[in-house]
Every structure is written in C-alpha cells, then in structure tokens.
Amino acid sequence: MHKDDIEKIVTAHGASLYDTEVTKEFNETIYRVYVTQEGGVNLDKCAEISQELSLYFDVNPPVSDETYRLEVSSPGIERKLTTKNHFKSSIGEKVKLKIINDGKYIGILKSADDKGIVVDIQGESKRVEYSQINKARTYFEW
Predict the structure, then answer these.
(1) Are strands 69-73 and 28-36 parallel, antiparallel or unpaired?
(2) Domain ranges within the chain, ordered by starting residue
(3) Which of 17, 35, 42, 50 has the most C-beta neighbours closer than 10 Å?
(4) Which CATH number describes the domain made up of 84-138?
(5) In this predicted structure, what is the pLDDT of residue 64?
(6) Cα separation, 83 vs 18, whole angstroms
(7) Do residues 101 and 134 make contact, with C-beta atoms less than 8 angstroms apart?
(8) Is 1's pLDDT higher than 70?
(9) How far apart are CA 133 and CA 116, in angstroms?
(10) What CATH number has the domain spanning 3-73?
(11) Nearest Cα to 136, choosing from 107, 114, 113?
C-alpha cells in the first residue's frame, strides 16, 4: 500500500490521514480514505483530496486486479479506533469497547499509552491492554 504517499497528498491539502479501508458493498469494491482537520473536514476539502488521489491512483492503484470506487470523507463522529494514535487522540471522549472474553463496555477514555488504555466506566477505572480489544469506537449518545 502507498500509505506514505497518501499521507503526503492529504497533508498537502491541510488535513491529516486518519485511516484507509477496502470494503465491498453490493459487489463493488470501495477504497475509503478517512481524513481529519482542525475544525472539521468539509465537502470541498474531501473533493480536492479525492481529485489528487484519483490522479495518483491512476498510476498506483490502491487495489490490485479490481475496479474500485474512491471515497474520501471524515471518519465521522463515531469513528473506529484501530491504532494507538487513534486512542491517544480520543482521550476524554466517550468510547464503546468490545473486549475479548469480557463483553462490551461504554465509558470515558481517560488515558492511552503504548500498551493499552484506561476507561472510566460508571466511576470505576478499567485498564485494558490493546491485545484484549476486539473492537473500539468513539460513541455518541443521540
């Protein structure tokens, strides 16, 4: 994957690369690029980044042997937490966790280091190692 090149293109537009993913929907391959920016990402910013990435991907396809659709967007208010940096940048936010052999939890992310996180769940601190986390995302109560 060309993650370093993608990051350079996104950064050149004043945004930050949050994550990428390849998914299939209705027999169509979608290559998603999630970007963030101080104050939020708007549609015009996503379009600018998409245009430049499209040119780059014409020469360096992000998926092999398949046609695909490129999508550039914000990761959203409820975003996946998959890297240590994702957790570190989400300190103070409400998170929803699925822990291996321990169930699901919703709480406030209090801290994150290189080995794991601490979540406040109804007034009690719970330490969870990254290796124990099956799924994690920020959580917004509607």
Answers:
(1) parallel
(2) 3-73, 84-138
(3) 35
(4) 2.30.30.100
(5) 83
(6) 10
(7) no
(8) no
(9) 9
(10) 3.30.300.70
(11) 107
3-state secondary structure the chain: CCHHHHHHHHHHCCCEEEEEEEEEECCEEEEEEEEECCCCCCHHHHHHHHHHHHHHHHHCCCCCCCCCEEEEECCCCCCECCCHHHHHCCCCCEEEEEECCCEEEEEEEEEECCCEEEEEECCEEEEEEHHHEEEEEECCCC
Position of tokens 């060309």?
A: 2
What's the CA gap between 105 and 136, in Å, rounded? 10
Q: Quote the CA–CA distance of 120 and 127 in Å, as a whole number.
A: 9
How confident is the model over 42-67, as a mean pLDDT? 92
140 Cβ contact partners less than 8 Å away, ≥ 6 residues apart: 77, 78, 94
- Dist CA 74 CA 34 (whole Å): 5
Q: Which residue has the tokens 């040119």?
A: 55
- Two tokens, residue 102: 């321990």
Reply yes or no on whether the pLDDT at 36 is more than 90: yes
pLDDT number for residue 31: 95
Exposure string of 13-36, with b = 16+ CB inside 10 Å and e = fewer, is bebbbbbbeeeeeeeeeebbbbbb
